[in-house]
Amino acid sequence: MAQQGAGTETNAFSAFLPLILIVVIFYFFMIRPQVKRQKDLKKFRESLAKGDKVVTTGGIYGKVMEIKDKAILLQIDDNVKILVDKSAVVKDMSDAPTK
User: Fold this and answer.
1) Are residues 95 and 56 in the same domain?
2) Is it the case that residue 14 has pLDDT exceeding 50?
3) Contact 68/85 with Cβ under 8 angstroms?
4) For the stretch 14-49, what's the b/e string if a residue is b when 16 or more beta carbons lie within 10 angstroms of its beta carbon?
5) Residues of the domain holding 8
6) Is 18 helix (H, G, I), strand (E, B) or coil?
7) Are the C-beta atoms of residues 61 and 99 closer than 8 Å to each other?
8) Residue 2 reports pLDDT greater than 50
9) Same domain, yes or no, for 99 and 58?
10) More exposed terminus of the chain, fewer Cβ within 10 Å: N or C?
């Protein structure tokens, strides 16, 4: 009877081992890359400067005219400027080819 008690302890650990491995794999393949992307996006938004060409989450292409605390003034065409939230800017288009 004493031998069965010792055997069940190792079986309990081996039963949780796959679950622990799944959590570790989930962290490295899902959570960690997402956190890295969020940090990179935050750095990008903080480094925006006047004259940068950007794209918003809504797909609006524009040129940064003015940067405020939480908003950006974008020029989307001649004499057309819009105010967008800084968190809506997702991509730098400065190096993209023009039409």
Assistant:
1) yes
2) yes
3) no
4) eeeeeeeeeeeeeeeeeeeeeeeeeeeeeeebeeee
5) 1-47
6) helix
7) no
8) no
9) yes
10) C
Q: 1 with 15, same domain? A: yes
48: left (phi over 0), alpha (psi -120 to 50) or beta: beta
Tokens of 78: 């001649």
Q: What is the pTM of this model?
A: 0.67
Q: What does the pLDDT average to over 72-89?
A: 94
Tell me the two tokens of residue 65: 């005219």
Indicate if 58 and 42 belong to the same structural domain: no
Distance CA 22, CA 98 (A): 45
Task: Find the helix or strand (DSSP H, E) in which 96 lies.
Answer: none
In this prediction, residue 56 has a pLDDT band, given cuts at 50, 70 and 90, of very high
**Structure tokens given for 72:** 């950006």
Q: Would you say the C-alpha torsion 53, 59, 65, 71 has a positive or negative sign? A: negative
Section 33-41 average pLDDT: 93
